[in-house]
Each structure stands twice: as C-alpha cells, then as structure tokens.
UniProtKB/TrEMBL annotation:
Membrane topology: Multi-pass membrane protein
Residues in coiled coil: none
Regions that span the bilayer: 339-360, 366-383, 530-552, 564-588, 1056-1079, 1129-1151, 1201-1220, 1232-1252
Name by which UniProt lists this protein: Cation-transporting P-type ATPase N-terminal domain-containing protein
Organism of origin: Chytriomyces confervae
Superkingdom to which the source organism belongs: Eukaryota
Length: 1288
C-alpha cells in the first residue's frame, strides 16, 4: 500500500505530541533519521494518555477494534489529510501498553498473511516501520514485553530470507529487505529484543538473515549499509557472535569481508556504529548445544580453555547465573497416598456405604460381597496408578553424582551439581555424562544414547562442527555433542559444558513431565459425576419414603428399613466391576491387534477422541525414502516402479519431448502439464550398451556420491539391510533398480575413489572425485584413464549456482540428430563429455522442473558432473578447498525422492473422517512435502486445507492458535515443544486429543494428551512409560481399530448403566407409588437385595462383552464433556422403568383384589410381584443390547454370554421360588397361574419399548446432525485472545 502526502496513510498514530505526517524515511539503519514533528519530543511523550488509531492491516481486525479517545482537554478530533474524521478513542492506555498492542496485532498478521488475502506482507511490515519510527526510535521506548519481542523476532526472521529470481540468480525481495531493516532497528532500540536475539544460535541467524545476499556486487547501497549495520551490532554486542565468519556461509566470506572493508571505519570506531542503550548486567552465553561452533571459539566464549578449563575464580559467578547442575525432583506420591486416593474414590465410597447398609440390615453375606468388590477395585486402580508413575520414578535415577573436570589446568573430581557452562569435563569408558557437552577431544569415543533416542548401539562421536539450518538438530545427528545421563561405551574424550540442570535435554524432558498434571480420563469424570448424582438421589429417596410412611402413621423402624433398602437399590453395586471387566476385555482384544494398553481408563477415552495428532514418518508413511522419478538434462523423464533393492524394480522411460520444443513453451512442458509419465512408458534396459547415457550417468552419481550401503541380509524381513542416511539409501537403491550399482562402477568399470567433500547445510551439496583405474580388462567399457570425474549431488539451488553448463542430448552419429536418445553411447559420450552453455532460459526450465517435483511432495536433489585432467584432480585434493572442486559444474538432472504412505492408511483416514475424527499430521518435514502426503492420504481436502509451519506456530499464543478456524490439519517443521502447544490449544476448545510420538522429547505432549500413544518399535522407554497406549507395530491403522474398541467399550458401559438404572428405578417407582397410595410394599428388604443380585450383575456383565454395533465408526464421537446420561438416555431410563414398575404394580394390585388365582395371601402377592418385575428385568437385558436399535434388528442370540447370563439368572430366580430352605429364607412361594400375568407383562414391555425406540432414533439423529454442524465452530474455554501480558 503506497504512502504519500496526497493519500490517506494506511497506518496512523496520533497522540498529544505527534502529528499525522506520513513516514518518508528510507529503510536503512545508517540513513538519516526521519524528521521529528515539531510538536514531538525526542525524550518521549509528555503526557501518559494517548489517542490511538487502529494500527492493523487486517480489515476484519480493524472493524473489531475498540476505539480510544484523548481526555476531555482535547476538544476536536484530528483530521486525516483528505479531511476525513479520525475515529475517536474512548479508553486511555499508557504508551507502552498501546505500542505492545499494536506490535502484537502485526505479529499475528504476519502469521495470518498467507491465509488472508485482505492484506499483504508489505502492508504489515510498513505498519511495523511506522510504529518503530514514531513510537520507539530515539530512545522513546527502551523496554517492551519480553515474550512479545521473542515472537516479533521470530516473525521478522521468518521473512528476512525471502528471495526472488531463478535458482541461479536469487536476490532478497523488497519485503525481506524491510523485515531485515526492522530487525536491525529493534535490535538497536529495545533491550528485550536484544535478549531474544541472544537466545539464537549463529547458525539460525546465518540462515535467516541472509547477510551475504545483501553484500553482493549488485546489491543496492541501502542493502549493503543495512547488512554492515546488523553485522556490526551482532559482533560487537553479543559475545557468541563476535566472530563474523560464523554469521556468513564459508563460500561467501569474500563478499562479507569486502563489505567490512568498505565500512571499516564504522566497524573500528564505536562512534561510527549505531548507538545502543547500555546494558546494566553481564551478558552470559545462553545454554545451547553449539554444535555449529568450533570448540576453541566456544571455550573462549565461556571464558574457558580447551586445555586448562575454567579459572576456579569464575565458577561462583557462573554458578549463580546458571544455577546448580541438578534435575528438578519429580513428585513421588507415597504408596499410602495412592491407596488413600483409591479408597476415597466416589464410586468406592458408594460401595462402602452400600456394604454398611447391608450390615445395618443384618445381611453380612451381601455386605461381604460388596467389600470384596471394593478391595478388587482398589487393587486394580492402585496398580494402574503405580505403573503410570514409573516414568517419574525412572527420572529419579538419572542424576550423575560425580564428574571429572579440569579447572586451572588441574584435573579433579567434583560433585556434578557444581558443574557450570564452560567447564572442561573428562570422559572415560563407563562414565555417565554429567551434563550436556560440546566435545573438543575424542579418541574412539562411542556413547550409548538409548535413554534419549532408543538406539542401544553406541553412537560414534567426533569434534567436527555441524552446519545446519536450525539449532534443533535431531539428537542422533549431534555427533559433536554428549548428553547428560548417557553412558560412554568405549573410548575417551573431553567436552565443554554447554547446558546444565533443567537446560539439559533430559532436564527439559524431566521438567515437562513432572510439571504436567495427570488429568482424569473422561470415563472417570463421568462415573464420578454419575456416582455423586446417585448419592444425592439415594439420600433424597430415603428421606422421601420415610416422610411418606410417617405421614401414614407407619412404624418409623419399618420405614427406615425400607428407606435404606431403596437407597441400596439406587446404588449400582456392579458398576465398578462391570466397567473394569469391560475395559480389561477390550485391552485383551486390543493386544491381539498390536495395541498394548498401559492405563485401563484410556481404552474408553479413545472412543471419545475427536482429533488424532499423528507423526508422519513411520506412522502415516513407510518411514523409508524411495526414488519416485528422475528428469535428466536431455529432457528425458523416468519413473521408478517398486524401488526396492535387487532386481524386483525397474526404471520406466517416457516418450521424450525434444529439448528445443520444451524450451519454446516452458509452462506446457513442465510441472503437472507434463503427463508423459502416464502413458507410453517403456522399461529401460539394465545393460550399459543399451541403456540411455544420461540414465547411466545419473546412476553413477547416485551410486558413487554417497556413503550408504544396501546389502543382502537373510535375517531382515525385506531380505536386505540398509546402512546410512535414509536419503542416500534411497539413492543407492535407485541405482540398483536401474541396474548400475556402486559395485558395477568400482569393480566392473574400474573406477577408484580419490577424495570426498562431505555434505553440509551451508553448501547444501556433496562431492566425490573418481578416476578410472588403469589396466581395465575391457577397454571399450571404461572411461578416460587420463581424466577424473567430480560427481556432485545436493539441493537444486546449491548445485545450480555452481553450474556453468549442462549435459545436452546425445548426438546420433548416423543421422547427426542432436535430439536422439543415444543408447549405448555412455562411455563414448562421457569420454567426449560435451557440454552446452547454461542459458537463462534453460536455468528457468530447471527451476520450473524442480518446483513442479517439489509440489508433488518429492524431496528434490540435483546431480552434476565435472571432468578434469587427472593432474588437476590431484591438485584439487591437495588444496582441501571445496570451491576448487565444486565450480564450473555440468548439470545432469533432478531426482525426486519420497517417503510413500503406508498401505491402508488412506482408508483408515477415511474411516476417521466418517467417524467424525479429524486427523492432524505433525511432522518435521518440509511443508510442501507434508502437504502433498496429507493430500494423498485425504487429510487435506477442500474443507480442511489449512497448514502451518512450526516457526509460525512459535509466533502465536495457545489461545490464538485455538481460535484459528478452521484449525490446521498439517503442522510442518515443528519441534517437540510445538506438540505440547497443539495439544493444549485443542483441549482448550474442549476437544479430546490423541497424540502419537516416539522420541523422549514427545513425552510431555503424550502425557498431556487425553490419550498418549507411543510407538513400540521406534519409541524410547520413557515415552512408552508416559503413554497410555503403545503401538507394537507403529501402524496408524492400529489406532483406528483402537478407536473402534474405545467406542465399543463406552457403548457397553452406557448400555449397562441404562439397563441397571432402568431396573433399579423400576423398583424405586414401584415402592414410591405403593408408599404414596398407602399399599403394603410389594417386596421385603431381603427380596430387594436378592433381585439386585440375580437381575443386576449377570445380565449387566454380559452387556459388557456386547459386540460392537455396525455404525460404531460411521457416527460422530460424543461431545467432549458430555455425561454418560444424556437427556435422551434419561428419557430411555424413565420410560423403561415406568413400563416395568407400572406393569408390576398392576399385577400386584390385581392380585390384591383377588383377580389372580393362587395369589390370595400377602406372601403370594409379593412372590407374584417379585416374579413379574424380575422377569421383566431379565428380558430388559435383551432390549438393552442397543439403546436405539430394535431388538428385532439386534437379535437375541448373537451375544452368547447374555443368553447364558439370562439362563443363569432365571434359574436362580426359579430356585428362590421352589428350592426348600431358600424360598423360606427369601419369603417366596409358588406363583402358579401368575406366570400367565408375567408373560402378558413381558409382551406389553416389548411393544412399548419398541415404540419408545422410534422416538429415540429420531432424537439421536438430531444429536448427530447438531454435532456435525458444530464440529468446526466450538469455542475455546479461555476467551482471552492474546497470549502475552503487558509488562505494566
């Protein structure tokens, strides 16, 4: 958006000391400052109250903003340049709070800009520039909120590296330059921003700032001045950045050095450098791994020495700043406390009260049974909690008591708690590493890092500096680091302490696990709520019956006995037992499906899951890279079928479009428009005499320019054993599929390796030098013996910027056709090594090709080659300079690699969506690759298409993340810390979340999730201990089967509760009605208890093993927070209870009137009522096989356990009538013709329940529809929008 004096500014601030003059300053740190308006003060505002117009680029945000106004002293609102009124503001804020609010809006906009077409990146950055120029610069605001500055820094760094142009000629964009300028200005002005920058590593800043891109010969003056200013600020104000070479890629040191010489006076003279406010306290290097720093420079940074260690005098000061090297002690609940927690569980208390009631009514046998159930429940619950705390107990043993350290050149043994960053630690075989170290000396050092990575084989260590784009390097790749609590397997070494205590890798994990509270599972919350409701109901009914009886002048003792009996009827004695058994049986079934359940209640929780957050690699995908396609410089297109080691796979060739034709219309012949791979594919020959020369050349680079190996292994499931980096393994396999392996080139062709320059993230390439051995047996199948070949692979941008030519199509000697494929000419072709000049047109074509392949989710690598005389190769090797080898390259082609989706995952994702469960992919991979895989799996579709990068996730608060609509379904380039943030955000919106993970860094998020799922094959032990469920096969398909089991468990628990409460409520309604109409109660106390025993427990237990309903995975999950008893369930319970109670009451009253033969005495009438109600309750078990489906749909024979339970309970009931001794004890007698009345009651029951279920099915349908409508619009529980607080 343009800014000038003739148009209305887009970003306005008006206060009591500023005018509405627009910003005309340039974007250079070294440029003259913009003129301060006449009514302003360089010292800051003279009045604390301000008038603030909306500083936002988001139109919707601006509409929703609150308006502020000056105090009454201001009589008129300011005007815009065009005469329009400026909206007044009615709330007064102080200067700092308003600035922080403005900046926070812009930070959020920086994250949202990719998903909002209402504003541009330039708009947002211009807004920030306006805030900087008129509210912060000249020392007006020295301090701002630290968290906000951290997020602002990350947001700016995310945009400073943007470039435009082809892969060969890239330059910073205008927006990137503005972000770069703002970075320097905030660095100069705001203390908290400087502290935020101090937490970054040199590698982070090197990759994000792109300083070399602004000091090229063709860079503008403003770009060069800004680069010089920021380089000076970083090297003079931060001890960890004092060496400017660490902020610039090695191959671009010359450009940066020229820049420093150009502005030498400013670097040498403090007066010429930007003035920064003084820092009141010492600046200590932040705790970090520093794998990208040279050990000598690192030791110097901490004031140490790699030979003498720290001076003893500096230790107290460092210890005071960094704190002791000790892990936070995790809470360790005592056994008695865990037992007390189980005993005081509400459902257990209910059972104890029921047992007391049984004792009070002189029935010790029933009381004993209840107490046995109590003991079993306590034992099971205690054992589960004990297992859940094993992760914490494991952390207790992780401390290292002693450490060998060198201080002032003297080696001694000290308490490891006294270690500080900068200490020089000595490691010997068998030692436990006492802190996180940056190794500075190694001798055959191997360290076992199983506690962190799960790998039981010792990791070989080195002192080599690792150049990566991020400081969040996977632990297994940190070859120059040693981590606290890991063990030296062999060798010895020395290392500089870089992180201690809570800052160490194991310390961060320990703190995260111990600080995460253990949440109750949904079923625990629901049963607790149900139990509390039942307690109040039992007390209420007991009091009500007693009051009614006393009103009718009945004896108070009799009424107390009846009241207690009714209270016992309300209490579902078998609830805890049935829930436990149901879950235990589900655990057994899940174990057969490779899902090991560690915490029993998590089985049910899975059924309520609304979101599954899953890793990509190894869970959704195979976890193994494979070659997908190859495009060579002659415009040939190849695809790999079944890219496996051995002869199983093949390379397919598409019809080649002549290169001249492709260059004449690049958009048509690149990307998705090039569909040659879909038709007319032919199998390439695996004979070097018949195979295309470019394919053989690409195979040579693929096979030789790597250090991985793939060998036959009879013990491996695949028959092959792969060793090395997964990407290089994929390249080796690709060469094997093509038929031209490393063994072929070295043994058959006779190539010999002369040297290698390993891959690093600065160059982004790897190169090797090979030469032909002399004396090959087949002279026509060998390369030039007087030449050597430099083979190069790497990122397309890294390779292309070093290419001066490309390998053109082969020329057919017979027809002189330069567009011929040239089969059989590999050796002749490579010996002649023709090369065509790399034109801009051809460079653009390569860029289009690379982008098209990346858009398909492929990891794209470029191949290049260079032929040099053998003498030059010797000189290049001797020079040990990478640039000598990796220049003047000839481009060869692009290969696309992919980690393919696992079989069946796409179908499982579809099942999840059908079940109303959203799958969220969380990966450390690039966003393009992740999105492509997610789209292939159906995770990303037309509705759910929002994706987010980890760096964007860092910039917003949990509340802002929770408020995103729709919620992202792909998170790429995330750190383990991001996972915890995602889980918390989803839970704040009242969703139930399942989280998968394998590394120890995933443990906090797994513990926080409603259901934590660890990988059994690739997962670490601590991760498994923190998880609720462990997948033995690391397969996503197992998760959806576990969800099925979880829903089945809850369904069965719900059916059991509905059945049990229907039966018990029928007794309550029957007793209340009889008491209300002053009729003799139909049951004695012992008959109530006998009915509860035979009609409650066996049928209810059989409902616990009820098979899953057919629609278990085609309906949405329950509303999170929804109780077991929904209004629909309460309606079902009341209807079924009324049917049973009213039918029994009718039979009882008819018998009392003499209408039923053989039921003339009170004992006979009570026996008939008992037979009627108990039989109806037993029949109700079949009707309860589904709450909504008809019994004619579910049937009665599918659940064999229920048939057996019905027969058992019915026999026990008959024994109560006819078994001598038992019938006298129960007060029951032969019913006789009363069974006819019982049969009529059952028929009426079936008819009325089926009518009721018609209404239930309609209600459930409405509930499901309402869930679907609300699925993406549930509001977070915390309404606070922003995640930071003002420092005021």
């Amino acid at each position: 958006m343009a800014h000038n004096n003739q148009s209305e500014p887009a970003f306005l601030i008006a206060n009591d000391h500023e005018s509405s003059t627009t910003d005309t300053a340039t974007n250079s740190v070294f440029q003259a400052e913009p003129a301060v308006p006449a009514n302003s003060s360089a010292q800051g505002p003279s009045h604390p109250d301000i008038q603030l117009d909306v500083i936002t680029t988001n139109p919707k945000e601006k509409e929703n903003m609150v308006s502020f106004a000056l105090p009454s002293a201001t009589s008129a609102a300011p005007k815009h340049n065009d005469g329009g009124d400026m909206r007044s503001m009615s709330v007064k804020l102080d200067g700092q709070a308003s600035i922080e609010h403005q900046i926070d809006i812009h930070v959020v906009d920086l994250v949202e800009v990719a998903n909002n077409s209402g504003f541009t990146l330039a708009d947002i950055l211009e807004g920030l520039k306006y805030v900087m120029d008129y509210r912060i610069r000249h020392g007006k605001m020295l301090h701002l909120n630290a968290d906000l500055m951290m997020r602002l820094m990350e947001a700016l760094l995310m945009n400073t590296g943007h470039e435009t142009g082809s892969l060969m000629k890239k330059k910073p964009t205008a927006d990137a330059d503005l972000a770069f300028t703002l970075f320097g200005e905030f660095l100069e002005e705001v203390e908290e921003f400087r502290r935020a920058v101090g937490t970054k590593s040199a590698t982070d800043l090197r990759q994000s700032l792109n300083i070399p891109g602004r000091c090229q010969p063709n860079s503008t003056k403003e770009q060069r001045e800004d680069a010089a200013a920021i380089l000076n600020l970083l090297t003079t104000r931060f001890v960890q950045f004092e060496d400017w070479r660490e902020l610039v890629r090695p191959d671009e040191h010359d450009d940066a050095e020229a820049l420093i010489k150009e502005y030498a006076p400013r670097f040498a003279n403090a007066a010429g450098a930007p003035i920064m406010p003084p820092v009141d306290e010492d600046i200590f290097p932040p705790p970090a791994l520093y794998f990208d720093k040279n050990s000598e420079k690192l030791a110097h940074m901490f004031g140490s020495d790699i030979h003498k260690g720290l001076p003893e005098s500096s230790v107290p000061k460092l210890l005071a700043h960094y704190g002791p090297n000790a892990l936070p002690p995790p809470p360790k609940p005592s056994i008695l406390k865990m037992l007390w927690t189980q005993v005081t569980d509400l459902m257990v208390i209910i059972l104890i009260l029921a047992a007391i009631a049984e004792f009070a009514m002189n029935d010790p046998r029933a009381a004993t049974v209840l107490l046995i159930v109590v003991v079993l429940n306590v034992i099971i619950g205690f054992s589960q909690e004990f297992k859940a705390n094993r992760a914490l107990e494991a952390l207790l043993t992780l401390s290292v008591p002693k450490a060998t350290v060198i201080r002032d050149g003297i080696q001694s043994i000290v308490d490891s708690k006294e270690l500080v960053p900068g200490d020089l630690v000595v490691l010997e075989e068998g030692d436990a590493v006492p802190a996180d170290l940056r190794l500075c000396e190694v001798s055959q050092l191997d360290i076992i890092e199983a506690i962190l990575t799960g790998e039981t084989v010792g990791a070989e260590k080195s002192i080599r500096t690792i150049r990566k784009r991020t400081r969040k390097l996977p632990l297994g790749d940190c070859k120059g680091s040693a981590f606290m609590t890991t063990v030296v397997a062999r060798g010895r070494g020395k290392g500089i302490v870089v992180r201690t205590g809570e800052s160490t890798e194991i310390g961060r994990i320990s703190k995260a696990i111990t600080s995460t509270k253990t949440e109750q599972t949904p079923i625990q919350k629901k049963l607790q709520s149900l139990g509390l409701w039942l307690v109040f109901l039992s007390v209420f009914l007991c009091i009500l019956v007693i009051i009614i009886g006393l009103a009718y002048k009945r004896p108070i003792k009799d009424m107390l006995e009846v009241g207690i009996s009714l209270a016992v009827s309300v209490i579902p004695e078998g609830l805890v037992a049935v829930v436990t058994v149901t879950m235990a049986l589900a655990v057994s079934r899940m174990a057969k499906r490779n899902a090991i359940v560690r915490k029993l209640p998590s089985v049910e929780t899975l059924g309520s899951v609304t979101h599954i957050c899953s890793d990509k690699t190894g869970t959704l995908t195979e976890g193994k890279m494979g070659a997908s396609g190859l495009w060579t410089s002659d415009n040939s297109l190849y695809t790999f079928s079944h890219p496996k080691a051995g002869a199983e796979g093949a390379v397919l060739i598409a019809d080649r479009t002549p290169l001249a034709v492709a260059l004449s219309d690049i958009p048509t012949h690149s990307g998705i428009h090039d569909d040659r791979h879909k038709t007319n594919m032919k199998t390439a020959s695996k004979s070097v005499t018949d195979a295309p020369a470019h394919l053989v050349a690409a195979s040579m680079v693929s096979a030789l320019c790597c250090n991985a190996s793939v060998e036959k292994d009879a013990d491996s499931p695949t028959g092959f054993k792969a060793t090395g980096d997964p990407t290089e393994v994929a390249l080796v396999v690709a060469s094997q599929v093509a038929g031209f392996t490393k063994s072929y080139f070295e043994n058959t062709v006779g190539l010999e390796k002369l040297g290698e320059y390993a891959f690093d993230s600065d160059r982004k390439i790897m190169s090797v030098l090979y030469a032909q051995k002399s004396g090959s047996s087949s002279s026509n199948l060998q390369l030039d013996t007087n030449a050597s070949f430099i083979l190069v692979k790497g990122a397309p941008e890294g390779v292309l910027r070093r290419c001066k030519s490309y390998l053109p199509p082969c020329r057919d000697e017979a027809t002189d056709d330069s567009e011929a494929r040239g089969n059989g000419s590999f050796f002749d072709y490579m010996n002649k090594m023709p090369a065509a000049e790399m034109s801009d047109e051809y460079g653009n074509y390569i860029s289009e090709r690379a982008e098209a392949m990346a858009g398909q989710g492929l990891r794209v690598l470029a191949f290049a080659i260079r032929k040099v005389p053998l003498a030059d190769a010797t000189r290049i090797i001797a020079s040990k300079k990478q640039a000598e080898a990796e220049s003047n390259l000839t481009f060869l082609g692009l290969i696309g690699l992919i980690d393919p989706p696992k079989a069946g995952v796409k179908e499982s994702v579809a099942k999840c969506k059908g079940a109303g469960v959203k799958v969220i992919m969380i990966t450390g991979d690039h966003i393009t690759t992740a999105t492509s895989i997610a789209r292939q799996l159906g995770i990303v579709d037309d509705v759910d298409n929002r994706v987010m990068k980890g760096v964007e996730l860092d910039l917003i608060s949990e509340d802002a993340l929770a408020d995103l609509k729709p919620f992202p379904v792909v998170f790429a380039r995330v750190s383990p810390d991001n996972k915890l943030k995602i889980v918390t955000a989803l839970q704040s919106r009242r969703y139930a979340v399942a989280m998968t993970g394998d590394g120890v860094n995933d443990a906090p998020a797994i513990k926080k999730a409603d259901v934590g799922i660890a990988m059994g094959i690739g997962g670490t032990e601590i991760t498994k201990q923190a998880a609720d469920i462990v997948l033995a096969d690391d397969d996503f398909n197992t998760i959806i089967e576990a969800v099925r089991e979880g829903r089945q468990v809850f369904d069965n628990i719900k059916k059991f509760i509905v059945y049990l409460l229907s039966c018990n409520s029928a007794e309550i309604f029957l007793f209340l009605t009889c008491a209300s109409i002053n009729v003799e109660l139909p049951f004695t106390t012992i008959q109530i208890l006998w009915a509860n025993i035979i009609a409650d427990i066996p049928p209810a237990m059989s409902l616990g093993v009820e098979p899953a309903e057919k629609n278990v995975l085609t309906r949405p999950p329950r509303f999170p927070g929804q109780g077991v008893l929904t209004p629909t369930m309460v309606f079902v319970i009341i209807c079924q209870a009324l049917i049973q109670s009213m039918a029994t009451l009718a039979v009882y009253l008819i018998a009392q009137k003499g209408g039923i033969r053989d039921a003339y005495t009170l004992e006979a009438q009570r026996s008939l009522a008992f037979a009627n109600l108990t039989t109806m309750q037993l029949c109700q078990s079949f009707l309860s096989r589904s709450v909504e489906l008809s019994v004619f749909t579910t049937g009665i024979l599918e659940n064999k356990f229920m048939v057996g339970a019905f027969i058992l309970s019915f026999i026990l009931m008959i024994m109560g009538f006819y078994l001598p001794g038992l019938n006298e004890w129960l007060g029951l007698q032969n019913v006789g013709y009363g069974w006819v009345a019982v049969l009529v009651s059952v028929v009426i029951q079936v008819v009325l329940v089926e009518v009721m279920k018609l209404a239930v099915r309609a209600a459930v349908k409405r509930e499901n529809a309402s869930y679907n409508q609300d699925y993406h619009s549930r509001q977070p529980t915390n309404k606070k929008k922003w995640g930071w607080k003002s420092s005021n």
